[in-house]
Design a protein that fits this description.
The protein has 13 helices and no strands. The protein is mostly helical. It folds into two domains: about 80 residues, Endonuclease Iii, domain 2; about 110 residues, Hypothetical protein, domain 2 (Endonuclease III, domain 1, Orthogonal Bundle), CATH 1.10.340.
Length: about 210
């Protein structure tokens, strides 16, 4: 992450600057890969532990030796896909991702990179099982967009609450307004809020 982003965030918000100092350098990874595969992964991770989702995805890829193409996924019987550990709803969502990839609703990486954030969210939320949060995660971690603040995310709001010593989490709309001061580096600010939650939890475990 650029030094310019950290300088701007420190200057814009003295409280966030404390989190930056405590957490240290930003190690936000650079995303790669296709939106199609990223959405399959996101759906697998919905409402399950990360390790469980990783195991499901390993079994899914094992059916084909890699991620299935959209055509292969649509041609695979639901029962076969469900045997990897996916629920009926998640199988339906993944197959809709495949169908929407084939019809262009979910663009290939080169095409989606030309769309602005709002257009990406509008496109992706047409897909079954893909809400705004999932689209925002794709923007941040697959497309490397620098100015995304997922205000509905529990960890983001919890990080803000802990950092500011509040009793309750901020409401999403209020946090969106507050977060305007972090533009155009709201992705980096989000990363620090997530990491600050981890810092506090680690300190509590250490006693």
């Amino acid at each position: 992450m650029s030094a310019e982003a950290l300088r701007a965030l420190r200057a814009a918000d003295a409280t966030l600057a404390q989190a930056i100092r405590i957490v240290g350098p930003c190690t936000l990874p650079r995303g790669r890969g296709s939106p199609y595969e990223a959405l399959l992964s996101a759906i697998a991770h919905q409402q399950v532990h990360g390790k469980a989702a990783a195991a499901i995805l390993t079994r899914l890829r094992g059916l084909y030796g890699r991620y299935p193409t959209p055509q292969e996924l649509l041609a695979t019987p639901d029962a076969t896909v469900r045997a990897t550990g996916l629920s009926r709803a998640k199988v339906a969502a993944m197959k809709d991702v495949a169908a929407r990839t084939l019809d262009g609703t979910v663009p290939e990486r080169r095409r989606i990179m030309r769309l602005d954030d709002a257009a990406v969210i509008a496109r992706l939320t047409e897909v079954r099982g893909v809400g705004r949060w999932t689209a925002e995660m794709l923007l941040m971690f697959t497309l490397n967009r620098p100015d995304v603040l997922p205000v509905d995310d529990f960890g983001i709001r919890e990080g803000f609450r802990l950092l500011h010593g509040r009793r309750v989490q901020p409401k999403p709309r209020w946090l969106a307004a507050y977060g305007e001061r972090w533009a155009p580096y709201r992705t980096t600010a989000s990363w620090y809020l997530w990491r600050y939650v981890e810092h506090v939890r680690a300190e509590r475990r250490a006693g």
